[in-house]
Description:
2 domains, two-stranded antiparallel sheet, alpha/beta, Rossmann fold, 9-stranded mixed beta sheet, globular, 522 residues
Amino acid sequence: MSRRVAAILVVAALLASACGDDNSSAPPVLVTTTTSGSTSTAVDASSLPPDSTTTAGLSPVVVGQVECPDHLQRRDGNQLACGVVTVPINRADGSMGSTRITIATLAGYDTGFETPVAVLQGGPGGASSELGVWFPQQPFTQVFVDQRGAGFAGPEFDCPEIMTAIGRVLGSNSAEAGIVAESAYDDCARRLDDDLVLRHTDSESHAADVVDVMAALGYGRWVVYGVSYGSTIGLEILRDEPAGLAGAVLDGVYPATLDTDLGLVASAERAVDEIDAACARESICREYLADGSFRTTLERVMGELDESPLTVELTANEIGYTSGINLVLDGRRVAEFAFLLMYQESTLRHLPAVIGALDDRDPSSARWLASTGSRVLISSQRANDEGTYFAVQCSDRLPFTDGPGEDLAPFAAAVAAAGLEELCEEWERTPAAETADDAVSTSIPVLLLSGTFDPITPPDYASEVAATLEVATEVEQGGRGHGIWAGSDCIAQIVQLFVADPARSLDTSCADEPVPVEWARP
């Protein structure tokens, strides 16, 4: 289970930056158009068709405004506008009819800023609309486009089976936990096996949905922003160079060319090396570790806890679950939790102190790692729809993976315990086309953002993608984790300048100075 969560995690706290403006502009009204050039027509959301079948070509793309659900209410005085969009299930076969996806829009505070940004969440399986609750208001309008099976209406590809089993997963040693989680996912796969929409859920369909949404909203010029897996959707959009797309911002770049099994091994090891090197440069951090090395201390703690695990009693309130858990903290779980907490700098900064104290079996450090790791894992499970994850990964990625390999270092072996082939056994999928992992080449300007500590999409991935782009600007910010647009005035300014004019030459020098890491005990 942990390997899947590691791939989909985009930590909500990273996105919870307060908006700097108190302008509460009314949300834009969503009007409907079709993608075939017909006249725009206003549509009441209640008249939107359900998932349907037609034999007369592709179903029209229709946008209808709905009231935003309670969980999409912002706290800064700004309001989201929400919509349900009908899109073709399969654009190569109109007889399959249509399905629904959902969107949310946040008006910009500068009415003269005419270029909107389509915002795409990670995963696969993350709901972009939920980013609309936390993302700061920008001068431009943001259109949060949900993936199929995620969002607040339409098909639901969640796997409640795993949430039901999460107490047994965390209350077992890692070997037993893997069996429990696998059984829960297999039950979900069998339940969703015959879903027509799920069988046509992949990066190509997600990309086409985004293009259709932006056209249906009447935008003749727009930019796409994708974080984590959302950057993969962004790359698929760039591959087709749709009319109106002026630029792309890819944050935590997840390239189509990536072997996900080998990539996870390499990125996990690299993250440990980066923390190890950064800690070695700071005396306060070195003092947390008996031999001054984060890596050797982590590997020693993992070995000790594999031989003699700790049990940590956690309350329901501590971890945001329906009941308390007697969590088994063994070596593999330490690695899994440490990996999850590397995603954002606010938790990463505590890892050397916590791992160093675990070297002496400090109970308070064990409790912090167990409770914080469990809370992040459980929240990420709730925030992502696992059916969408497996639909995409087992179609788009499985044909191009060779497994994690052998003789792995202890940390990588724990994080990448199961390869994609094993995870996809019950999720029968039609393999993506042989060209699906081809590098993307385009003349459309692209801004690529990376955090130095990112454990899942390291800066090397951005460089790999940039190598085949005609116009690419890479920005790496030291001291940052996964997804760096939110939480940095410097990066926010760079993105605003890019969206205003993607063809301009950007001054990115503000990102040259690393963000200081405040190493500390929790």
